[in-house]
C-alpha cells in the first residue's frame, strides 16, 4: 500500500462514527429525509445517485468512502439495491432502528402512490400526461446518476491500479457471464492482493475463483428459482402464491431492480400467466412514474391478481428479504469494516462498483435519451448540478413539466408538420 493511499485510508478510519444512541436525536431527520426520497425520487438504479447527491454530498451523513462501502455491500447482496442503500444510510445515521425507519419511510410512500396509480390505471389506463412526464424525467435522472458516478469515482479511483480494477469490472460485466456480486467479490480479492498481502491475496483469489466456478456450474445444472412454479396456464393465485413468489424473487435474485424486473416479467407473463404482456408493460410504466424503488411493480401485479390485499402482500414480500438481510449483516459489517484486510478488500471493491455503475449508466442512456431534445435536457441537468447544485427534487419536477409540455406541443398538427418540413429541407 502506498503512503498516499495509506494516509487516505487512515484519515477515513479516524472519522467519527455516529453511535447508535443517535437514533433518539436523529429519527426525525431520518424519517423526513426518506419520506421525501420515497415520495419524489425517480429513476430505478439512479435513485442511488439521488441519495448520494442529497444525503452524502449535500448533507454529509457519511463520507464518500463510507457511501462507497454501502454501495459495495448492497451490490453483493440479493434484493432491492436502492432500498438496501437507504437502510444502510439510515443505519449510519441512527443505528439499527435508524436503518429500519429509513427503509420503511422510503418504501411506504411509493407503495401508496403506486396503489393509487394502479387503481386509476384500472379505470383510465396510462394517459398521455403520464407518458410525457416519464419522457421528461428520463434525461434528468440519468444526469443526476452521471454526476453521482463522477463524484464517487473521484474518491474511489485514485490510482492506476484502481482505474484498472474499474475498467476490468466494467468489461467483465459486459462480456463475461459473471454477475455483479461475483465481480465485486473477485475485485475484493484483488484488493487484498494489491493493498494488503500478496500471498494472502493470491490464496483468497484462488479460493474465490474456485467457489464461483462451482456456483456457476451449479447454476447451469439447476433451474432458475421459481421457474417451475407453474406447469401450465394459470390466471389466478392466492395470497400464499403471491407472497411466496415475491419473497423468493427478493431473496434469491442478484443484480438489482432491473435484473429482478426481467425475471418477474418472464414469470408472471410467460409461466404464471397472471398478466398479459401489455398489462406488464403498463405496470412497468407506472412503476417508473412512481417515485421510490422500481420493484414497487410488485404492488401493481398483486393488485391485478388479488386486489388491494394482493398489492400489500406483493410489496411486503419482495422487500422483506432486503430488510432481513441488511439489518442482520450491518452490525457485523460495522465491526469488520475497520480491519486491515477489509479496508484492502474495499479498495478493490469500490472502483469495481464505479465500473458497474458506469455500465448501468450506458444501459440506461438509450431508453432515456430517444432524441436530441432529451440529450439537451441531460446536458442542462449536468450543467445545473455542476455549477449551481440545484436540489434534485426541483430538477425532477422541472423535467416532468418539460416532458408534459413537449408532448402537448408535439401533438399539435402544425408543429409536427413544420418540424417534418424543416427536417426534409435539411436533408435535401
What would you say this structure looks like, in words?
By secondary structure, this protein is mainly alpha-helical. It folds into 2 domains: 19-224 and 322-408, no CATH class; 239-317, no CATH class. The chain has 17 helices and no strands. It has helices spanning 3-14, 23-40, 47-58, 64-75, 81-124, 128-156, 160-175, 180-195, 198-221, 239-252, 256-271, 277-289, 297-336, 340-368, 372-387, 392-410, 413-427. Helix 6 (128-156) packs across helix 15 (372-387). The protein is globular and about 65 Å long.
What oligomeric state do the depicted chains represent?
single chain
- H/E order of the elements? HHHHHHHHHHHHHHHHH
Let me know the largest β-sheet: none
Number of strands: 0
Number of domains: 2
Helix and strand composition category = mainly alpha
Q: Helicity range of the residues?
A: over 70%
Average pLDDT score: 78
Q: What percentage of the residues does DSSP assign to strands (E)?
A: under 5%
List keywords for this structure.
single chain; 428 residues; mainly alpha; 0% strand; disordered N terminus
Amino acid at each position: 500500500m502506498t503512503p498516499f493511499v495509506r494516509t487516505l485510508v487512515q484519515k477515513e478510519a479516524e472519522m467519527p462514527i455516529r453511535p447508535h444512541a443517535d437514533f433518539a436525536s436523529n429519527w426525525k431527520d431520518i424519517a423526513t429525509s426518506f419520506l421525501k426520497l420515497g415520495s419524489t425520487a425517480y429513476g430505478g438504479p439512479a435513485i442511488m445517485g439521488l441519495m448520494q447527491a442529497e444525503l452524502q454530498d449535500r448533507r454529509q451523513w457519511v463520507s464518500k468512502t463510507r457511501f462507497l462501502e454501502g454501495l459495495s455491500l448492497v451490490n453483493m447482496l440479493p434484493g432491492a439495491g436502492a432500498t438496501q442503500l437507504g437502510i444502510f444510510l439510515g443505519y449510519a445515521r441512527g443505528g439499527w432502528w435508524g436503518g429500519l425507519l429509513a427503509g420503511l419511510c422510503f418504501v411506504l410512500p411509493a407503495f401508496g402512490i403506486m396503489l393509487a396509480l394502479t387503481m386509476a390505471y384500472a379505470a383510465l389506463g396510462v394517459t398521455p400526461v403520464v407518458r410525457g412526464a416519464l419522457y421528461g424525467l428520463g434525461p434528468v435522472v440519468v444526469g443526476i446518476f452521471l454526476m453521482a458516478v463522477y463524484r464517487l469515482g473521484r474518491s474511489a479511483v485514485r490510482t492506476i491500479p484502481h482505474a484498472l480494477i474499474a475498467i476490468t469490472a466494467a468489461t467483465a460485466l459486459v462480456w463475461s457471464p459473471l454477475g455483479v456480486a461475483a465481480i465485486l467479490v473477485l475485485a475484493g480479492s484483488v484488493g487484498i492482493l494489491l493493498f494488503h498481502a500478496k500471498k494472502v491475496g493470491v490464496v483468497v483469489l484462488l479460493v474465490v475463483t474456485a467457489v464461483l466456478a462451482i456456483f456457476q456450474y451449479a447454476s447451469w445444472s439447476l433451474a432458475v428459482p421459481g421457474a417451475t412454479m407453474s406447469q401450465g396456464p394459470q390466471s389466478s393465485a392466492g395470497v400464499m402464491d403471491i407472497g411466496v413468489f415475491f419473497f423468493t424473487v427478493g431473496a434469491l435474485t442478484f443484480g438489482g431492480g432491473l435484473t429482478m424486473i426481467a425475471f418477474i416479467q418472464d414469470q408472471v407473463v410467460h409461466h404464471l400467466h397472471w398478466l398479459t404482456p401489455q398489462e406488464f408493460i403498463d405496470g412497468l410504466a407506472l412503476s417508473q412514474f412512481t417515485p421510490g424503488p422500481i420493484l414497487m411493480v410488485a404492488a401493481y401485479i398483486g393488485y391485478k391478481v388479488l386486489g388491494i390485499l394482493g398489492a400489500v402482500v406483493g410489496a411486503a414480500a419482495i422487500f422483506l428479504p432486503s430488510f432481513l438481510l441488511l439489518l442482520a449483516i450491518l452490525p457485523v459489517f460495522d465491526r469488520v469494516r475497520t480491519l486491515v484486510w477489509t479496508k484492502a478488500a474495499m479498495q478493490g471493491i469500490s472502483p469495481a462498483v464505479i465500473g458497474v455503475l458506469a455500465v448501468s449508466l450506458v444501459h440506461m442512456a438509450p431508453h432515456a435519451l430517444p432524441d436530441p431534445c432529451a440529450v439537451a435536457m441531460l446536458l442542462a441537468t449536468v450543467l445545473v448540478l455542476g455549477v449551481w447544485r440545484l436540489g434534485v427534487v426541483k430538477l425532477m419536477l422541472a423535467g416532468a413539466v418539460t416532458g408534459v409540455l413537449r408532448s402537448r406541443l408535439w401533438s399539435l398538427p402544425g408543429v409536427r408538420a413544420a418540424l417534418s418540413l424543416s427536417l426534409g429541407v435539411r436533408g435535401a
